[in-house]
From TrEMBL:
<dbReference type="InterPro" id="IPR043323">
    <property type="entry name" value="PIN4"/>
</dbReference>
<feature type="domain" description="PpiC">
    <location>
        <begin position="1"/>
        <end position="77"/>
    </location>
</feature>
<dbReference type="Pfam" id="PF00639">
    <property type="entry name" value="Rotamase"/>
</dbReference>
<protein>
    <recommendedName>
        <fullName>Peptidyl-prolyl cis-trans isomerase</fullName>
        <ecNumber>5.2.1.8</ecNumber>
    </recommendedName>
</protein>
<dbReference type="InterPro" id="IPR000297">
    <property type="entry name" value="PPIase_PpiC"/>
</dbReference>
<dbReference type="GO" id="GO:0003755">
    <property type="term" value="F:peptidyl-prolyl cis-trans isomerase activity"/>
</dbReference>
<comment type="similarity">
    <text>Belongs to the PpiC/parvulin rotamase family. PIN4 subfamily.</text>
</comment>
<dbReference type="GO" id="GO:0003677">
    <property type="term" value="F:DNA binding"/>
</dbReference>
<keyword id="KW-0697">Rotamase</keyword>
<keyword id="KW-0413">Isomerase</keyword>
<dbReference type="InterPro" id="IPR046357">
    <property type="entry name" value="PPIase_dom_sf"/>
</dbReference>
<dbReference type="GO" id="GO:0006364">
    <property type="term" value="P:rRNA processing"/>
</dbReference>
């Protein structure tokens, strides 16, 4: 992903998130617009899980470095 997007990744508008993921992501989820689907606590690595569960629904998390590289997350919802 380009450095400009890492600097301002949290400013990516939610509706454009999938488009940006398909264009810039190096993750296998890029093909689906970055959609990782639902996942429970304990499934993802530490920092990724921490950010995913502390970001408000509807918000894009600031870029962060996890065990598998840099990430930008859009939290679309949570299951109870």
């Amino acid at each position: 992903m380009g450095e400009a997007y890492l600097d301002d990744g949290d400013k990516i508008p939610g509706p454009k998130f999938g488009e940006y993921a398909m264009k810039y992501s190096e993750c296998s989820s890029a093909k689906s617009g970055g959609n990782l689907g639902w996942f429970p606590r304990g499934k993802m690595e530490g920092k990724f899980q921490e950010v995913a569960f502390s970001t408000e629904v509807g918000k894009v998390a600031p870029p962060f470095k996890g065990a598998n590289g840099w990430h930008i997350l859009l939290v679309e919802g949570r299951r109870a």
